[in-house]
Amino acid sequence: MIETILHKDIPFDEGNYQLIEYLDNYQIADGKKVKVKEIGKKVALTNAFFFDYLKEYHIPTAFLRKDGENSLKFSTYQEYPFRIKILNSADKRNSKIFGMKEGSELNLPIFEFHYGCGKESVISESHLIAFDLCNPEDMKLITRICSKINAVLKSFFERRNETLAEVCCHFGKYEDKVFLIGDFSPASLKIFPKDESVKWTNPYKLSSAAEVKKYTEHLFNIASVK
User: What's 79-208's CATH class?
Assistant: First the structure.
């Protein structure tokens, strides 16, 4: 994942806001960090694009605007302590469990709830509700938002001859409103070219600064084309 600095509760003309600064450090396998030139700037620009794009489809986000070269402004929120991984293709874990070929397209998306960063982080909706991590009403709203996010992004990438294999969503809440937060970095967005003859970087196997840089630039270029 990309390393960030969170500057909280800064006075602003729209009320307090949070400033997220994206650094040029990325964590690959086994907690190893690599330095990737200008990745912070490119992830910030890519995030700004996708947040604004999703807003056009009335998806609530905490994103306000870009601020500086590698920073984004978000409205104040309290982050939910879990994430939702939306799978449109079988990843390594599910292919092993269900005997499918890794990368096989799924008829319906899988919504996986994850708590923590360990390998055994998959939990259920009932875990979240039972341990007061999310109330039932917010859970229903979050899953509806996820369905819409997935549909919008799948269509976006299909028009660009790419397959959306996975997108990971994080959410926050302020007063009674739920917002999409998080990012659209190599850690959270996995896409593949539909044309199998095209050379590509496997987003599930980014093991060096060069591979992280190449895949980040691929996402950035897609977001930059009007």
Answer: alpha beta
CATH 3.30.470.20, the chain: domain bounds: 79-208
161: pLDDT strictly greater than 90 = yes
Evaluate whether 143 touches 83 at the Cβ level (below 8 Å).
no
pLDDT at 11 over 80: no
83 versus 116: the higher-pLDDT residue is 83
Pick the CATH number of 2-75 from 3.40.50.1820, 2.40.50.140, 3.40.50.1220, 3.30.200.20: 3.30.200.20
Whole-number pLDDT of residue 14: 57
Q: Is 105 exposed, middle or buried (0-12, 13-18, 19+ CB in 10 A)?
A: exposed
**Is 179 strand, coil or helix?**
strand
Q: Is residue 225's pLDDT more than 80?
A: no
Residues forming CATH 3.30.200.20 domain(s) in the chain: 2-75
146: left (phi over 0), alpha (psi -120 to 50) or beta: alpha
Q: Are 164 and 153 in contact (CB under 8 A)?
A: yes
Q: How far apart are CA 25 and CA 4, in angstroms?
A: 8
